[in-house]
Design brief:
Blueprint lengths: L13 H28 L4 H21 L10 H23 L6 H14 L21 H14 L8 H19 L2 H15 L8 H8 L3 H10 L6 H26 L1 H7 L11 H21 L3 H16 L8 H11 L3 H17 L1
Helix pairs in contact: 1-2, 1-3, 2-3, 3-4, 3-5, 4-5, 4-6, 6-7, 6-9, 8-10, 9-10, 10-12, 10-13, 12-13, 12-14, 13-15
Amino acid sequence: MEYKSIADRYPRGPVTLMSRVYKYILPGVRAELAEWRKTAQAIPDAELRRQALDSMNAKKFHCEGGAVYAAANLEKKDVLIPLIVALQTISDYLDNLCDRSTSLSAEDFRLLHRSMLDAVTPGAPITDYYAFRDERQDGGYLHSLVLKCQACTAALPAYGRVQAHVRELVGLYGDLQVYKHIAKPLREAELLAWWDQHKASYPELKWNEFAAATGSTLGMFMLFLAASDPELKPEQADLIKESYFPAICGLHILLDYLIDQAEDQEGGDLNFCSYFGSQETLDERMLLMVQAARRAADRLPVRSFHRMIVEGLIALYLSDPKVKGQRRVQRTARLLMKGSPWTRLFFWFNSHWIRKAM
């Protein structure tokens, strides 16, 4: 099929989007993960091998969700799907290494996440990302992921116009992973000191909302999609970055923390929703984040696609089985679902079809 413009490539409604996801995106993601799983199975170090395989087994839905952006340019799906899967796989692997780590070293976590910066910088030299930890023999697994990302980004015709924005988002993501995984007594102070460096740029946010926004990869993936358009203008790249970060990215990760409150409390893990202080404040701030994300989506070209992303996020997280066991989360969910037929449609899709296919 020939398209008159890049905008014509975008799915205009939920049925078209889901049809493309099932026909092209999910099979492509699963094929990519199957290859990376084979590589991970050959990792010599038992701990690194376990974390690599566990990250793919437990978090494959991150790749499946992120690769939805490739549905907006099927002509470039063979570049976008491998790129999104590879970068998300690095992210999930490193999250496992830091979260379930034999190390609490900020220096270690910083060097590990340098791999993500190198991955989105075509031609950047690779290095020993494990230099500050005991487990180091991965058989070239992380290097292969980095090189795959570099090759894919180099194949995007307008990548030079988004690279600075992608690197900024990846840099913030790496900062978050360092500060939230160091020794527990140090985490909050380091996160607050980090916020002090950025709060003047985001006066509408609380510190935990900013931190949550930095944990999302969606802005990176949307910029990859934008870079698949050879006619992309720099001001369009600017608008995408400003629309996705912090509003859409912040909503994404706060929804994740919202439904994880019970298990994080039980495990003693950091949860950014707990810093709102009261149920009323949490509900108020979550509703503001939903409204901000919808406004941000509406500012973008092909607004219908971005609204589907926002409504799909709300539906995906609020239809999770974890919600049923948390009465306060159910209350928040009812508030956030109000007034959006699309959210309810995606909720139905997710509850009846997507989870059955997983």
